[in-house]
Amino acid sequence: MEKSAPDFFDQDFWRVSEPLLHMEKRKMAFICSKGNLDMAYPALIMSIAALTEKVDVNIFFTFWGLDIITKRTMDSLKFTMQGNTALHLPLLEKFRPGWGKRYLPPSFGNLPGATHLATWYMHKMLEKNGIPPVRDLLEQIVEMGGHLWGCKMTVDLMGLRQNMMFKGVSGIITAPDFIKKSEDAQIIFI
């Protein structure tokens, strides 16, 4: 019998065993600089976990990380093998025992259709485990009080505008503005 996936948006799923009551208002700041599918999830999931614990959250999207909050690209993020030295696909275990644990060389990503196949597989695994799409996670973060910020320099560099961004983006700000917002915060660069 296959175990059912937990309800991702169930607040009790995110609750830690002992709340951090001894600290003043905690703050976390995430910097997302990569726009791959597998690079979007860490910051978004950690943000939801932090917001559940009443931690103030700001996420700054810069360079290719802007793909995560740009309407044109946010629903079609890709999972690429190039540059991923720790890549292994558990799916391969079905074809030959032991293959699912082997690391695949990043050069496999150069094969025609490899990115499409890897992206399809990643979506399938996310869905199987009850993990929502990027857009749903962004909506949840905003509903919970988190703030999404686009990098002004990168927005200008790429010819983007605020109206091209996901509706929940709080604004387009400079790096110094984000540094002010993240004062006294734990900063996590992804």
TrEMBL record:
SUPFAM superfamilies in UniProt: DsrEFH-like
Gene3D superfamilies per UniProt: DsrEFH-like
InterPro entries documented for this protein: DsrE2-like, DsrEFH-like
Domain of life: Bacteria
PANTHER family: CONSERVED WITHIN P. AEROPHILUM (PTHR34655), PEROXIREDOXIN FAMILY PROTEIN (PTHR34655:SF2)
Name this polypeptide is given: DsrE/DsrF-like family protein
